[in-house]
């Protein structure tokens, strides 16, 4: 690297140290600008030393803007670097040069240019509210061409990064207004790109390289997700933000396209997050409840209806599921013990179908949904899909165990599916008084709950973890199921007997005595080894110690001894499956009550405790 590169490296070190270099701000800006100017988009690849120098200039510019946004520099250094930035993006028109570098044949140069652009756009929005929009016209032109190349990939990445920053709150308040202005000139071009990338043409061989097309489609799916997140969280709804829902069949058809397996997986995950309204949940910081999108419900219904129509047409038979999942998007299958399926695909497909059914049965008939939906038929198709891919490997396994098998490694999806299946069960039951075949198509919520508890070794403290954590919808699922149990105790008893019968048949078929319907689960089979949010064992010990000291002073030792004796009697009341479920629920009630009385429970559990208390009398009746 030449002397200029070494000088820039020294400046980089001074920036990290929070100092300004000895040269003037005009000289530094001029040096960076001249380095970027010497690299043209149509020129052949420059020498390695020049490419390194160019990458260093781009990275230095990005770092300067980032440090200024973070307000982490001393006053004198802040004044110096602000003047450098003002000169670069003012009189030297660095933005136009960055737009030109997006077309560079060197992918690293193109990507670093996109990063530098994104950081400046975010900074400009923070300072001026977004005064410089010339980049938007350049992006629109690239999107309309829809040619898969590094330029398109960099534009998609840059726009996605800017929208994410707005949703994270990095640009300050007025996020809704900022996004509305930002997207106002890009609607038609992004819609054009959606049509060109995801039309039925993708079913035929492409002249474009599959790797380049796959990279472009993955970047585009990221953009579609942030657009959906903007709609969900800020109520910003433009025409392009509706296209994911209204034209969802294009995403469904990606599974049969001549693209890499990773792209098909990303398309399914985008569909899943859209139906579950989870877009952006991992990184977005706000949700604006005052701007409700009244058309979202109708658009989600259109998406769900499209899913059901495609499933009816045999879409599940076209969904690829690799025998072993690729790691980090690679194509190399790593040899593992046993046959391993891609659980990410299985979970996504299962939830897409389940949520589509739930959305359709909850919508009024005049909104376009059918009066009677064949839930049984769709779930039978799903069970066949899972059976084809080896999810239910044992003929003696209980059909309802598929929920715990498929979602064993993803608790939030497991609770979402179990909650959804309760609604489907009640809907099917309202159409037919008989539920004798409900287990055949794997939709018995009593079996799901029993098998869940058994996979947790009936450890109530794990349920307490779920109730305290906000990462799953377990509270909503638990309340919904307890209400069902209160009204449907006969079916609960039948489910207990059915599971025990399956266990007996499996033991007769398997002399080793291993439970055939046991759910493979990442959790340990012993309660003490299950990861905890809180060490409830030590908490209980400390509480008992405090109670003993308090009881000595207040004369309540007999009450404590009585409670301990009652607890021991409850634990050994029954060894049957039914008894274990009730003991687990009663232990959960005791733990929640204790934490609530001490003011340690994170929310008011009064309604939940009432439901748990209403279950105890049924235990004596059912026993």
Outline the structure in words.
By secondary structure, the chain is an all-alpha fold. Among the domains are: 7-92, no CATH class; 129-280. It is built from 27 helices and no strands. The protein has helices spanning 3-17, 25-37, 48-70, 75-89, 94-101, 107-128, 134-145, 150-168, 175-183, 187-198, 210-234, 239-246, 248-252, 261-276, 296-312, 343-362, 375-388, 402-406, 411-431, 445-455, 460-468, 474-487, 489-509, 536-554, 557-571, 577-597, 606-622. The longest helix is centred in the middle third of the chain and has 25 residues, at 210-234. It starts with a helix and ends with a helix. Residues 582-616 form the Protein Lines C-terminal domain. It holds the Pfam family LINES_C. InterPro entries: Lines_C (IPR029415), LINES_N (IPR032794), Protein_Lines (IPR024875). Residues 159-496 form the Protein Lines N-terminal domain. This is Lines homolog 1.
Structure summary:
Helix content is 65%, strand content 0%. The chain is an all-alpha fold.
Q: Which key features would you list for this structure?
A:
mainly alpha, LINES_N, Lines_C, 623 residues, 27 helices, 0% strand, elongated, Protein_Lines
Task: Write the topology of this structure.
Layout lengths: L2 H15 L7 H13 L10 H23 L4 H15 L4 H8 L5 H22 L5 H12 L4 H19 L6 H9 L3 H12 L11 H25 L4 H8 L1 H5 L8 H16 L19 H17 L30 H20 L12 H14 L13 H5 L4 H21 L13 H11 L4 H9 L5 H14 L1 H21 L26 H19 L2 H15 L5 H21 L8 H17 L1
| Number of extended strands | 0
What overall form do the CA principal axes indicate? elongated
Strand content: under 5%
Largest sheet data:
none
- Order of helix and strand elements from N to C terminus: HHHHHHHHHHHHHHHHHHHHHHHHHHH
Oligomer: single chain
The residue-averaged pLDDT reads 81
Q: How far is the N terminus from the C terminus?
A: 82 Å
Q: Show unreliable segments.
A: 202-211, 334-338, 513-573
- Helical residue percent band: 55-70%
Structural class by helix and strand composition: mainly alpha
Gyration radius over CA: 30 Å
Number of H/I helices: 27
């Amino acid at each position: 690297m030449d002397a200029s590169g070494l000088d820039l490296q020294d400046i980089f070190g001074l920036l990290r140290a929070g100092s300004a270099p000895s040269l003037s701000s005009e000289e530094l800006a001029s040096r960076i600008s001249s380095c970027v100017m010497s690299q043209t988009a149509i020129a052949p690849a420059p020498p390695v030393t020049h490419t390194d120098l160019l990458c260093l200039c781009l990275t230095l510019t990005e770092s300067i803007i980032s440090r200024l946004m973070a307000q982490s520099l001393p006053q004198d250094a802040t004044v110096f670097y602000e003047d450098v930035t003002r000169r670069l993006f003012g009189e030297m028109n660095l933005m136009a040069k960055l737009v030109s570098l997006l077309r560079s044949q060197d992918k690293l140069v193109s990507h670093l240019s996109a990063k530098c652009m994104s950081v400046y756009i975010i900074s400009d929005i923070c300072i001026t509210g977004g005064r410089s929009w010339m980049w938007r016209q350049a992006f629109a032109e690239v999107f309309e061409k829809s040619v898969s190349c590094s330029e398109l990939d960099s534009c998609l990445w840059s726009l996605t990064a800017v929208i994410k920053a707005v949703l994270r709150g990095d640009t300050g308040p007025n996020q809704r207004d900022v996004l509305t202005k930002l997207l106002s000139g890009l609607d038609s071009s992004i819609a054009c790109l959606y049509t060109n990338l995801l039309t039925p043409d993708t079913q035929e061989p492409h002249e474009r390289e599959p790797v380049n097309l796959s990279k472009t489609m993955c970047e585009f799916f990221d953009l579609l997700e942030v657009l959906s997140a903007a709609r969900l969280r800020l109520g910003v709804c433009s025409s392009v933000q509706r296209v994911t829902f209204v034209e969802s069949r294009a995403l469904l058809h990606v599974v049969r396209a001549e693209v890499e397996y990773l792209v098909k997986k990303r398309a399914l995950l985008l569909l899943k997050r859209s139906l579950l309204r989870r877009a952006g949940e991992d990184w977005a910081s706000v949700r604006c409840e005052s701007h409700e999108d009244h058309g979202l419900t109708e658009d989600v219904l259109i998406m769900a209806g499209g899913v059901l129509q495609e499933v009816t047409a045999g879409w599940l038979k076209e969904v690829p599921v690799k025998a072993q999942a690729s790691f980090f998007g690679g194509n190399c299958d790593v040899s593992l013990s046993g046959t391993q399926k891609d659980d990410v695909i299985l979970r996504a497909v299962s939830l897409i179908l389940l949520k589509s059914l739930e959305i359709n049965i909850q919508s009024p008939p005049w909104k376009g949904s059918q009066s009677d939906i064949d839930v049984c038929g769709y779930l039978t198709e799903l069970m066949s899909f899972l059976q084809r891919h080896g999810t239910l490997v044992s003929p003696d396994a209980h059909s309802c165990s598929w929920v715990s098998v498929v979602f064993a490694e993803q608790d939030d999806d497991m609770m979402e599916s179990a909650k959804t299946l309760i609604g489907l069960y009640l809907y099917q039951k309202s159409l037919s008084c008989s539920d004798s075949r409900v287990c055949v198509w794997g939709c018995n919520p009593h079996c799901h709950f029993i098998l869940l508890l058994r996979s947790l070794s009936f450890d109530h403290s794990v349920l307490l973890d779920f109730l305290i954590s906000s990462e799953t919808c377990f509270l909503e699922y638990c309340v919904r199921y307890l209400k069902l149990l209160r009204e449907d105790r006969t079916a609960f008893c039948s489910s207990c007997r059915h599971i025990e019968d399956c266990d007996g048949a499996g033991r007769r078929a398997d002399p080793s005595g291993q439970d055939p319907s046991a759910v493979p689960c990442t959790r340990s089979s012993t309660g003490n080894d299950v990861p905890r949010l809180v060490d409830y064992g030590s908490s209980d010990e400390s509480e008992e110690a405090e109670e003993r000291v308090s009881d000595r002073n207040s004369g309540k030792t007999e009450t404590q001894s009585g409670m301990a004796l009652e607890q021991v009697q409850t634990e050994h009341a029954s060894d049957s499956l039914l008894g274990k479920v009730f003991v687990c629920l009663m232990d959960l009630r005791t733990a929640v009550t204790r934490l609530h009385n001490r003011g340690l429970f994170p929310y008011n559990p009064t309604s939940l405790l009432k439901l748990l208390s209403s279950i105890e009398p049924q235990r004596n009746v059912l026993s």
